[in-house]
Structure formats: C-alpha cells, structure tokens
Write a structure and sequence with these properties.
Blueprint: H1 2-7, H2 9-46, H3 53-73, H4 75-80, H5 83-107, H6 110-138, H7 144-148, H8 150-166, H9 171-178, H10 180-190, H11 196-201, H12 205-216, H13 223-238, H14 251-269, H15 272-285, H16 292-325
Helix pairs in contact: 2-3, 2-6, 2-8, 2-9, 2-10, 2-15, 3-6, 5-6, 5-9, 5-10, 8-16, 15-16
Keywords: Cell membrane, Membrane, Sugar transport, Transmembrane, Transmembrane helix, Transport
Transmembrane segments: 12-36, 56-75, 87-106, 112-134, 146-165, 171-192, 257-280, 292-313
GO molecular function: transmembrane transporter activity
C-alpha cells in the first residue's frame, strides 16, 4: 500500500479518502457495540426512571438482533438509490437513535431507550454492507484488499471511542456525545462521488466516467479501466438475474460460502460480543485491581492495535499465498 502511495500518490490518495470516509460507517457501528460496556453500569448507577434488570439485558442485546433485519433492509436502497445516498440516508436515523437514547434521561421512560437501541441496531446492520460495497467499488483492484481492510480497524476504533468517553461521563451524556459521529459520516459522504460501478449499472455512463476519473485522479488515464467496467456490466446485463437454487451447489459457490460462514460462526461463537458489551462489568466482577472502566480502555486499545496490524498484513499474506499455491478454487 505504501509503495503504491509513494509511486502514484495522485491516483491512490483519492481512493484512500473515499475508503476512509466509507469506513466511517463501520466506525459508527462500533459506537453501537461500545456504548453498552460503559453505558450499562452507568445506567444501573444513575437511572432516574423505572427499569428492571431484564430490561437492561435486552437493551444491551437488541442491536445485534435488529442488525440481522437491517442488513436485509439495506438491499433495496443500495440497488435503487445508490451506495452513496444510502450511506447519507442511514446517518440520519443513526443520529436519531443516539439522540433518543440520550434524551431518555430527561423523558424518564425506558421505551425511549428501547426505541433508540432498536433504531441504531437496524442502521448498524444496514451500514455494514453499504460501507463495504462502497469502498470495494471505489477501489482499484490492486489496492482493494488493503482499503477494504480499513473497515475492521474503523470498527475497532468505533468500539474504543465510547470506551474512552464513557469512562468520564454518564450513559446519557455518552449517547448524546456520539451523535456527532453519524453527522460526520453524512457530511463526508455528501462530498464523495457515487461508485462508478453502480452508475454504470444504472445506465449513467457519463457520470460513471466522471466518478472514476475523480477517484483515480485527474492525471490518470482511466480509459482501460472504464472499458473493463463497461464490458463487465454488459456481461452482467446479458445474464439472467434470477439466481437458481442449484447454483448454490457449485463448488465455486458453496466452498467460499462455507468457509466464510464458518469463520463468522466461530468468531461469534467465541463470545466476542458479550466481551465487547460487558467488558466493564466483567472486570468489576473479576475483582480487578484496575478500575473496570480503564481496564476496558486497555482492552479496546489492544483490540485496535491487533486489528490494524492484521489488516495491514492480511492482503500481503493472501496475495503471497495465491501466488504460491495458484487458484484456490
């Protein structure tokens, strides 16, 4: 990545900017996960309205459940309104969700907190594919892996941010503080172009060329890449769009699908979300000599460093493996 930046800064930097702003969606999803760890203990200590322990457990657990639905709901706007406008639109309910959570302290009704967590959970699920697709479609093939890996670091940074802020403020102040970040996503995406691939798929060829030129730099010759994008889209247009169930039995489909699902299953089965949501309580229950809030920050920092480190080396390892072993399919 650094080699490409040094060699062609005018070509890489616009893509890096698009990837950084697109990754802000993952940063915002991290905020939803990270709020629970400092927020739940603070809510227990300072609650000024009627709420049961079972409610608090549900408040922590609702976002991941809603994210399942949100990911499915993202399909329509991504296809019909575009990746950029979808990200802009999602930042608005994200803002509203955190606002409702913070205003619960003044409204004094747990329903507001529930609704806020449901909204942020739904948007959480929708932002993940929207951000990933935007970054992938804006990036050149030779640096796509590196730029796509920014999302993992952004997610870890998003989790760490409420860990840090929540160590010094109450749960409702934390929620109100976090509304700044979806606004930053909205503002950033306003100045970003739509992806050339989506524009080409929607027969907006001139706009696709302008977007590609902007993403590759004014001095970059984009003719070859533009022709390739156009040819790929023409091939897709000729294909039957309806996926047949028997296609899932093809080795080129079920093998990578099984590997991906297996990785995700075992990652979640480790209980990582429980750790992220209840880190402060875990350290308190363990009788740690370090304040649970500060120990949680340490965990978040380690997670961010490890994620950034793996993200930096992952594309290099994969490319080296593929060169050594050939096509894995």
């Amino acid at each position: 990545m650094l080699k490409h930046v040094m060699k062609n800064p005018h070509k890489v930097l616009p893509q890096l900017l698009a990837a950084a702003i697109g990754s802000w969606g993952f940063f915002c999803t991290g905020l939803v996960r990270g709020w629970s760890s400092p927020g739940i203990p603070s809510l227990n200590a300072t609650k000024n309205f009627e709420i049961e322990s079972s409610d608090i457990a549900w408040i922590a657990s609702v976002p991941p459940l809603c994210a399942l639905i949100g990911a499915l709901l993202a399909t329509y706007p991504l296809q019909h309104f575009g990746r950029r406008r979808t990200l802009i639109g999602l930042s608005i309910p994200f803002f509203i969700g955190f606002l409702l959570m913070g205003l619960t302290y003044f409204g004094r009704h747990k329903a507001m907190l529930y609704v806020g967590r449901v909204i942020t959970g739904l948007v959480n699920g929708a932002l993940t594919p929207a951000s990933q697709i935007y970054i992938s479609e804006c990036s050149s093939p030779h640096i796509r892996g590196v730029l796509s890996s920014l999302t993992a670091s952004a997610l870890a940074f998003g989790i760490l941010t409420p860990y840090i802020i929540g160590a010094f403020v109450d749960w409702w102040t934390l929620a109100l503080t976090l509304i700044i970040f979806p606004v930053m996503l909205l503002v950033g995406m306003i100045f970003m172009p739509e992806t050339p691939i989506w524009l080409m798929a929607n027969k907006r060829e001139d706009e696709a060329r302008r977007a590609l030129q902007r993403l590759r730099g004014k001095r970059t010759d984009i003719d070859a890449e533009f022709v390739r994008i156009k040819e790929n889209q023409e091939k897709n247009d000729k294909k039957e769009h309806k996926i047949q169930p028997r296609e899932l039995l093809k080795g080129s489909v079920w093998k990578p699908l099984s590997i991906s699902m297996g990785i995700m299953f075992f990652q979640q089965f480790t209980g990582i979300n429980a750790m992220v949501f209840y880190t402060v309580n875990i350290f308190k229950s363990a009788g740690s000599s370090i304040d649970g809030r500060y120990a949680t920050i340490i965990v978040g920092v380690v997670q961010l460093i490890a994620t950034a480190f793996s993200g930096f080396f992952q594309p290099w390892v994969l490319s080296s493996t593929c060169r050594t072993n050939g096509d894995l399919s």
